């Protein structure tokens, strides 16, 4: 595969050639799938009014997408089989485009939910295959930066995707936002077909005593998945309903909410890259700081988010904290299962999206019932903080400084280097 200049990329002796445009294309794919998934966040009020459902019920458009992605993602490696990963990614992006077009046309709520089911299938597949591609596109020394760039698509989706969807709705209605997402998916599919190299399925990893079991057998993998579940559930219990929460607490209109979401997203991009730099050497500390920051930001919304200035400060703090969760958790899991990255990533995507569905569902119940979703989100983030501090983190040889992983020191590490036992 040649780059856009027509010259073959230089291939260092210690890894694959450097393909910056390919990495950017994969980042564009993560941006597109997450934008498609998150669009209802800024559109719940107009969707509910148009299709005659309440805000809690409209939140199911997010819940069902996350649930379908969670159920389907662990089966993606087996379903794709020996197919070239470039071909599979292009096909999944086209499925995403068709799903967004169906959502734009939906004449009633059941059809919209059906469209969101298809979005979940496309999103789960793209995310599972894309998340672990960095080692196949850049030399080993650049894998960390490339992985952060791939996951920056998630943070940038918060910067541009959700706020632009909100602005498009204000200009032309919520259906225009879904139609624009469909067009973006088609453009990214075309870019992947041109810029990605052929990505044939790799041989199954060699299994030794350390990697024979499924990744879920490793305590550090299980700890990472629990942290991911708690953080993402807590976040989406609140974030799914951020528009009605801000409208109620601070009396903000659609334009102000869109501006705050933009500020949140910009902070999320910064959080993504800071966490991407920190996580390889300090996975426990990174996720602990992110969990603590998220808990503090959301719990203060009812008391201090009652003015535009107060809401802005809290949204920026929230974005900084949550922006690093995806890359921080993915880095934790890749370090925990280095010989089985694709299956570990499938678990991560499944848990992540299941947590999105659970968070949106739980937040909807609280929103339509007693209220107080920020307190639910803060409690779950606090539980994630405790799990990060107490649970097993990746081994020293794969994750950097020893003191970040095993508080008991070298003697403890020597007795726990094999993680096949119970957590």
TrEMBL record:
Record region (Disordered): 394-423
Composition skew (Polar residues), residue ranges: 413-423
Entry annotated with the keyword Transmembrane: yes
Origin superkingdom: Bacteria
Localization per record: Cell membrane
SUPFAM superfamilies: MFS general substrate transporter
Keyword Thylakoid carried by entry: no
Membrane topology: Multi-pass membrane protein
Membrane-crossing segments per the record: 21-45, 57-76, 88-107, 113-134, 141-164, 176-199, 220-242, 254-275, 287-305, 311-333, 345-367, 373-391
UniProt keywords, alphabetically: Cell membrane, Membrane, Transmembrane, Transmembrane helix
PROSITE patterns, per database record: MFS
Domain Major facilitator superfamily (MFS) profile residue range list: 22-396
InterPro entries membership: MFS, MFS_dom, MFS_Efflux_Transporters, MFS_trans_sf
Coiled coil: none
The protein, known as: MFS transporter
Species for this entry: Actinomadura sediminis
Classification of source organism: Bacteria, Bacillati, Actinomycetota, Actinomycetes, Streptosporangiales
């Amino acid at each position: 595969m040649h780059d856009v200049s027509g010259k073959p990329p230089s291939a260092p002796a210690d890894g694959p050639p450097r393909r910056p445009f390919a990495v950017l294309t994969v980042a564009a794919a993560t941006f597109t799938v997450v934008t498609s998934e998150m669009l209802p966040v800024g559109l719940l009020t107009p969707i509910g009014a148009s299709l005659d459902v309440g805000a809690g019920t409209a939140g199911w458009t997010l819940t069902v997408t996350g649930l379908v992605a969670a159920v389907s993602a662990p089966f993606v490696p087996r379903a794709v089989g020996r197919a070239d990963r470039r071909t599979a990614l292009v096909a999944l992006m086209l499925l995403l485009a068709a799903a967004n077009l169906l959502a734009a046309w939906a004449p009633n709520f059941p059809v919209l939910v059906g469209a969101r089911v298809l979005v979940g299938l496309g999103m789960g597949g793209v995310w599972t295959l894309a998340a672990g591609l960095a080692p196949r596109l850049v030399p080993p020394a650049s894998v960390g930066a490339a992985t952060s760039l791939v996951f920056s698509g998630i943070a940038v989706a918060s910067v541009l995707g959700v706020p632009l969807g909100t602005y498009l709705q204000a200009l032309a209605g919520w259906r225009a936002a879904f139609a624009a997402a469909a067009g973006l998916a088609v453009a990214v599919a075309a870019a992947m077909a041109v810029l990605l190299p052929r990505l044939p399925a790799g041989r199954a990893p060699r299994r030794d005593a350390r990697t024979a079991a499924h990744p879920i057998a490793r305590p550090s993998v299980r700890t990472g998945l629990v942290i991911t579940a708690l953080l993402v559930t807590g976040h989406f219990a609140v974030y799914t309903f951020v528009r009605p929460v801000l409208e109620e607490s601070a009396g903000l209109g659609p334009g102000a909410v869109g501006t705050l979401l933009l500020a949140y997203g910009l902070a999320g991009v910064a959080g993504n890259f800071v966490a991407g730099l920190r996580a390889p050497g300090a996975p426990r500390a990174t996720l602990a700081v992110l969990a603590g920051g998220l808990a503090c930001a959301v719990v203060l919304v009812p008391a201090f988010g009652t003015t535009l200035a107060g809401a802005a400060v809290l949204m920026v703090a929230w974005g900084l904290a949550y922006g690093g969760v995806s890359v921080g958790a993915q880095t934790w899991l890749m370090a925990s299962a280095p010989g089985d990255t694709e299956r570990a990533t499938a678990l991560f995507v499944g848990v992540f999206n299941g947590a999105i569905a659970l968070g949106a569902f739980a937040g909807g119940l609280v929103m339509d019932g007693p209220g107080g979703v920020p307190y639910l989100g803060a409690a779950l983030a606090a539980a994630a903080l405790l799990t990060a501090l107490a649970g097993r983190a990746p081994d020293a040889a794969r994750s950097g400084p020893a003191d970040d992983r095993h508080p008991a020191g070298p003697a403890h590490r020597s007795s726990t280097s094999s993680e096949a036992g119970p957590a």
